[in-house]
Structure formats: structure tokens, C-alpha cells
Specification:
By secondary structure, this protein is an alpha/beta fold. The protein contains nine helices and 19 strands.
Amino acid sequence: MKRHKQIVEENNPRSKSRHTSSSTSVVAIRRRRSSPHHLQRLRCVNTFQPSSLPHLPGRKRAITNLSLLTTTTPSRVGCCRRSKTSLLPCVSSSQSFPVTLNDYQFLDGSTEVELRLQLGGRNITNSRDIFVDANGSSLTIKVRLSGSFVTLMETNQLFDKIKPAETIWYIDEDQLVINLKKHDPDLKWPDIVESWESLTMGSMQLLKGTSIYIVGDSTEINQKVAQELAVGLGYTPLTTKELLEVVAKQSVDSWLLAEGSESVVEAESAILQSLSSHARAVIATLGGQHGAAGRAQKWRHLYAGFTIWLSQTDATDEGSAKEEARSHIQDRVAYSNADIVVKLQGWDSDHVKTVAQACLSALKQLVLSDKKLPGKKSLYIRLGCRGDWPNIKPPGWDPSAGVDASPGSSH
């Protein structure tokens, strides 16, 4: 059943009581407005002992370095973010919203977010009939019906991290109200969970108009993912393949046959130079060694935006994919210069949105890890895209001086 999301315009006054338990950080307050007598009698604090609850599924663990994106199972989203030569994790996401959940209300405050779930018709008479578990970026909500617990909401991919110890929940008439303290109070949450819709809305505040470049061995995959990202973000979709063919008045394949790959690489490099000053664009580049992105010395203007490498892999598990990613960096594969790496186990164009969502999820985590990155990209462009990313040199630095300014060189 489709979930109807509403934004709460007003926050009704209410009293809250807090209690901390060694077994859980969540509390329950049973409260009704209808009568002061009821308010006093039911305003109780409850903590739960794990032994009194049914066995709950274990929370999915964060992947240490790398996860795979299997396009045949779109519910499993995996990606890897790269900063310099280190790989950083992106967590697999799992979400459950049963059909009995008619709607929820969500409010983003300055330091916390509030979630209101309708409990009408469920005959919840005791706070022990509710189980709430919030931890890091996960949230599980269950209610007891006919003697057993039923999941109302379960996700290990909240829009951002929370402070679990400061989670408060209580019942307000026929609503379950959950207050989650934000880990980053400056980040606006479009929704309670990370989804395609919330990522496309939330990325606006993070990217600040910085363009995105899609690189990888497949021109077709680059184009499809770039198009999906551009539509979601409201960016301009551009493909260097189409631009090259307009300029040359012939197909890229014909060009390659007539003049060879070096001519195409140089032409695409010129196009990337002209695009480097463009904002709010998603640019799909040529795949393989026929394109400029496949040559490490041609990345000068790609650094003007956030680069995402769509890397196809035959790895059957995350361990081997991790080793593959390390070897690419050690071998200085040109694509390993990318800010983000998304590993693909196979490809199905029907699941292009799944791949695009993985890209946005990784982008969000990358920018949140260093909020100065969009400004740094802008500075790099203003100084002329001299190839000194990420160690930007002072104004007046001459890239022809022979100084190595590649990502491998440190400050």
C-alpha cells in the first residue's frame, strides 16, 4: 500500500519524561490529553528487558570497505567511496513498510526530527505493546498485536546518522511520536529514510550546483545513469559522445576507424575543458580507452566536478571486490582517480535508478565527510583547472613547471 507522507506544520506542546536503561536507550511515555486524571495515571516510564521480547532480526552490519551492487536484486544497494587512496564504506540498505501502515507525518526541526505514526484501530493499551529500537542510522518500530510483535517500520538507512542515546518516544492520543536527535544539526532531512526521492531533494543542499561526471568502461551505462541522475536532480544531462558526433558530423565509431583513438581522446578532452565551467550538469563520458577518462593524464578538467566510476566486476563476494578495487589503485588505473566508485555485478537497464540511487547515497556521505568539497571544486575551477587536485596550489602556480600535482602527492 502506498505510504502518504505529510509534513507537520505545528508542533503541539507536550511534556516528556526521560529514563535510561542499560539494555536500551529508548523510553516510552503513555499519555492522553483527554483527562488530567488519565494523564497522571498513564504518564509512566517503561524500559524493556530483551528477555521479554521475541527474537528480533539482527541489525545489518556496515560493510568495512566495499559492497557490491547487484542489479538483479535492486533492494541491495552497494557502493564504495574513494578519497585519495583510501576506500570508505557505503552501507547496504534494507527497508520495510508493511501494508498496515497507512501514513506517517514527518517534521525536520533544527536539531531533531520527529516521526508520527498512526496507531488508530490497533487497540494499544500498554506501553509494553510497543518496541522502538534506534541505533546510528537504523530504526525499528514494532507493536504487539494478538500476542506477537508486528513490524510497522524497519530501516537501516535513515537519511543520516542520529544520536541513539537521545531518542525519545511516546504516545500522543492515537499517534506514536518518535523524536530522533540529529548527528548533524545543519543537515536538512527531506524524509525519515534515505530513498531516491529524499536523496534527490537532499542533494541540492550538499552539491551546491557542482557538476557530476560519470566514467567507466561502458558508454551506454554511463549515459543511462547520467540521464537518471540529471532528471532526479534537475541538472542538465550531457554526453560527450553526442557532443563529439555533432562537432565531427559523424559517429564516434566511424571517427575511431578513420583517425584512431588518440584523435577521439584529444577531441573529448577539449569538450571536457569547455564543460568544466558548467554548473548543475551530469556529464556522461566515453567508455574504455577510447575516451579521455581512460587516460590518467587527461583528468585535469574532470576534477572540476564530482566523478563517479561505474565499475563492472566479476567478483562474487565483497572480499574479492575489495581486493580488485585496491589493485586498481595500486596499478594507477585512470578511473581510480574518481571520487566515488560504484561496483556493478552485471547490468540491467531496468534497474538504472538503483544504480543512480547508490551514486547519490555515496555522494551524500562523501560531502558530509568534508562539507568544504563543493567549495574546493569551485576554487579549482576559478583557478583554471590546472590539474592540481586535490592539493590545490596557490594562485600563480604554473602546471608546466614539472611539479607533480597528481592525487598521489600529499600536502
